[in-house]
Write a structure and sequence with these properties.
heterodimer; A: about 150 residues; alpha/beta; two-stranded parallel ribbon; 4 helices; about 25% helix; about 25% strand; elongated; B: about 375 residues; alpha+beta; three-stranded antiparallel β-sheet; 15 helices; 8 strands
């Protein structure tokens, strides 16, 4: 899988194991287009898109299905080194299904998807402080007990 | 000279009975026609994914019940399969058969609710809904025998189910299986050839096949668009490779086709349960060696099942501790709403909630 991606998009793969392929953030869109349109892949359905907070970086996970070939692929993108503002290009133009999933990842994890046409919060309201699924997010309960402890 | 009309924007929901929970749409109408829809989510957001990070793997089962609360058993199944895959637990065969029976009963219950409320949205006041809910009630009674709970079951555990079915469950299930095909027939006689239903649902909210695939739509909605994609067949989990069933397909991809697929799937569920009953063998419902506190090795896993509403998946990341480091739910209800605008725009006000109901969503799962 990793070699096949490298063949049509040189320099896009940064690592791989038997299941996952890690991509460079800048080449996500190019690889996504290739995986959907090239006859040897035909990954036409994006099943899952999510983000994970690994403290020192964020990881965006894509899971693809090819209906005609009945195979799956797992792509991962490391972004936001050292907790800088994580951002990856949006795959909305390639898979329409990324619409709500990318909005959810932005809302709850704070990963920006550049190029998303409706890049707004989805579960929480505009103006909500922070992104609750991040590991450094302090919940209301925690903040209240911390203040109580200080007194 | 034609009369000029002005578009008017109306807020529908969140507290509206036909939004199937607390869903809000900001709709712009031009006369009776829908010209723009903006769905607004989040009124039932409880942060289940965050809550899961603070609970042990077994405790998270109770959270999954509350996601899609009309199909708790399949939620349990999706989550438990992910945990088993992550921790490398080999489930007990009897437990697997029991949870397949529970999941298929749940699929019937969920489709009954979908059909009943779809007809309610169509204006068929009470009768079809009461027919559907009456049958669902019997399934809930069976669940009560299995685990003591009717809706939020928490019946499954890593390795199988938490206890074997009691002796009175089997005759009750046999009685139910004898009766339910006739009740599905009743419902179909009442509805499938009803002239009003045909007129109101045929050719309404048609979505093209390739658009649906591109928008990640799964489940009965995709099969109503003639795409043969059912995870029970394509990627069999549990013992679905040992049972035979048909996958109802339709090509119209309109509201009527979506309704028909659900009706026919109910019959296939009955067939699957009967085959499970033939193959189930005595034994423990859960292997004794699986500890209560599961501690999977470091790693991540994605596992999905064919839920009543579509592909229901869990993405779990473990850091070697007793609770998931990250627990993401691939919620079919949310993703199937991706094309809501395309379905509703250009349609009539009265068809809006029918099309919305034909997607079969559950707000507990949309917002989590």
């Amino acid at each position: 899988m990793a070699e096949a991606i490298e063949a049509f998009a040189p320099g896009s793969v940064v690592g791989h194991n038997t299941r996952d392929v890690w991509l460079r953030p800048a080449s996500v869109l190019e690889v996504a287009r290739g995986l959907r349109e090239r006859p040897e892949f035909k990954f036409d359905l994006l099943t899952m898109l999510t983000a994970v907070d690994y403290i020192d970086h964020f990881e965006v996970v894509y899971r693809l299905i090819s209906l005609p070939k009945n195979r799956t692929a797992m792509l991962k993108v490391k972004c936001g080194e050292g907790r800088s503002e994580p951002a990856v290009p949006s795959v909305y133009d390639v898979w329409r299904g990324a619409d709500l999933l990318e909005r959810e990842a932005w809302d709850l994890m704070g990963v920006r998807f550049d190029g998303h046409p409706n890049h707004k919060r989805i579960m929480l309201w505009e103006g909500f402080p922070g992104h609750p699924l991040r590991k450094d997010y302090v919940t209301y309960d925690q903040s209240v007990t911390e203040i109580a402890d200080q007194d | 000279m034609p009369i000029k009309t002005e578009p008017i924007t109306i807020n529908m929901g969140p507290q509206h009975p036909s939004t199937h929970g607390v869903f809000r749409m900001r709709v712009t109408f031009d006369g009776e026609q829908v010209v723009d829809v903006e769905p607004i989510f989040g009124y039932l957001h409880r942060g289940s994914e965050k809550l899961a990070e603070e609970r042990t793997y077994t405790q998270v089962v109770t959270l999954t019940d509350r996601m899609d609360y009309v199909a708790a058993m399949t939620n349990n199944q999706a989550y438990i399969l992910a945990v088993e895959k992550l921790a490398g637990i080999e489930p007990a065969p009897r437990g697997v058969w029991l949870r397949m029976i529970a999941a298929e009963l749940q699929r019937i219950a969920s489709h009954l609710v979908a059909t009943g409320f779809l007809l309610q949205d169509l204006g068929a006041w009470a009768t079809p809904l009461i027919y559907a809910m009456r049958e669902r009630e019997k399934i809930l009674d069976l669940f009560e025998m299995l685990c003591g709970a009717r809706i939020t079951n928490s019946y499954l555990r890593p390795g199988g189910v938490f206890m074997d079915a009691p002796a009175e469950f089997w005759p009750a299930l046999d009685m139910f299986l004898d009766e339910i095909p006739h009740r599905v027939d009743d419902l179909e006689d009442l509805l499938s050839t009803n002239e009003i239903i045909l007129a109101r649902t045929k050719g309404v909210a048609v979505i093209k096949q390739d658009v649906m695939v591109n928008a990640s739509i799964t489940g009965p909605m995709l099969r109503a668009g003639n795409v043969d994609w059912d995870l029970r067949h394509r990627d069999p989990y549990d013992y679905y490779d040992r049972v035979e069933f048909k996958r109802p397909l339709h090509s119209a991809s309109d509201n009527y086709a979506r309704y028909l697929v659900r009706m026919q799937e109910m019959r296939e569920c009955i067939r699957i349960i009967q085959q499970c009953l033939e193959q189930i063998e005595p034994g423990p419902a859960r292997p004794k060696e699986v500890p209560f506190i599961v501690r999977p090795p470091k790693g991540d896993v994605y596992s999905s099942i064919e839920g009543p509403k579509g592909e229901l998946g869990f993405y779990l990341v473990s850091d070697g501790g007793i609770s998931p480091y990250r627990c993401h739910v691939r919620a079919p209800s949310l993703i199937n709403l991706t094309l809501l605008r395309e379905m509703l725009i250009g349609g009539m006000v009265a068809d809006m909630f029918v099309s919305f109901g034909s997607v079969d969503i559950n707000m507990g799962e949309v917002d989590r």
